[in-house]
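Sequence and fold
=================
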Amino acid sequence: MTITCPRSRGNFINVQGDEPFIDPVAIDAVSEAVAHLEAATPAVNVYTPIADTAAALDHNVVKVVISTDGNALMFSRQPIPYPRSGYPAYFRQLGLYGFTAVGMEVFRGLDQGPLERTEGVEMLRFVEHSYNVRMLPAADAGLAVDTPEDLVRAQRLQQRTWSCPEAEAPRKCN
């Protein structure tokens, strides 16, 4: 789903269809951030820490390496960085993007590079063409639906959410 942000001068927010439980707070943060990006940065993307080894190894989980200035250096379905010594910090890229109006036009005009074609990660298009992608931390990774098992978990979560009394927060219902 892509929406135009009326209060942010024609910018766009994209929530990937496999991320139906993205926290609305993260969407608001992307909307705010995309409205204030510098000209050299056409897009913003969200990430969360990966806490368990299984997720770091899962090819359905896109990992991102982030520079000291907060921009994406690389996205991959493989565990990056490689754990040569110790256990590095791994971060999961969420399917939540914000594009400036100019950034959307740039993105549409760029050819897919070999990394994007290999990995199947759209934001690599900017990285491969030397554009910045600002990375924003999010507190909640939500639940991505990439496998049949994920779909079962999503259905359970949705049933719990719908059965909650309206006065309670959905995540507190059992």
Observations:
- Strands lie at 2-5, 11-15, 43-49, 63-66, 72-76, 91-99, 133-137.
- Residues 148-163 form the longest helix (16 residues).
- The first strand starts at residue 2 and ends at 5.
- Residues 8 and 35 are 5 Å apart (CA to CA).
